[in-house]
User: Which sequence fits this backbone?
């Protein structure tokens, strides 16, 4: 079986001069290798193909048979690494908390142990005729977030 740490080392070397980062690397028992990448500027097909070629040069199929898939992280998949949070600052995200609450708001800040989303709520001010929209910052520790996903708006 191909060593996942060796693959990680080679991928890190190959992307060191870029703004890309590794989201996930999986290696199945049948040597099916899947590498997910992301970048603040996006990951294109040429970049993935180049990384695929570099990795195939390092691993000889005569020694061990494997399949290799290099691609960008899915737009609709939950965030897995801090880089994905940082990339999406200013975008709308949906958070599913460990206690089952769904929160939707704009991702405004990312720290080492938590992130902040701005949730817009209707609030009726005393003496006002109509409720107004108020943005409330909500800090969520990573440990409390079961799933965080980018929200696609077709407006």
Assistant:
């Amino acid at each position: 079986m191909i060593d996942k740490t060796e693959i990680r080392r080679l991928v890190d070397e190959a992307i060191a001069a870029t703004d890309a980062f590794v989201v996930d690397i999986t290696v199945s028992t049948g040597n099916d290798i899947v590498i997910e990448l992301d970048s603040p500027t996006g990951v294109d097909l040429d970049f993935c193909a180049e990384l695929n070629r570099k990795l195939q040069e390092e691993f000889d199929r005569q020694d061990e048979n494997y399949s290799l898939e290099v691609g960008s992280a899915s737009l609709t998949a939950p965030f897995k690494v801090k880089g994905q949070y940082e990339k999406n600052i200013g975008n709308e995200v949906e958070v599913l908390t460990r206690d089952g609450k769904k929160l939707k708001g704009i991702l405004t800040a990312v720290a080492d142990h938590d992130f902040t989303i701005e949730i817009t709520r209707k609030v009726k001010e005393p003496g006002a005729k109509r409720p107004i929209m108020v943005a409330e910052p909500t800090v969520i520790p990573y440990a409390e977030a079961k799933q965080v996903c980018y929200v696609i708006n077709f407006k």
Notes: The chain has two domains: 4-72, 82-150. The two ends are 47 Å apart (CA to CA). The chain has a mean pLDDT of 93.
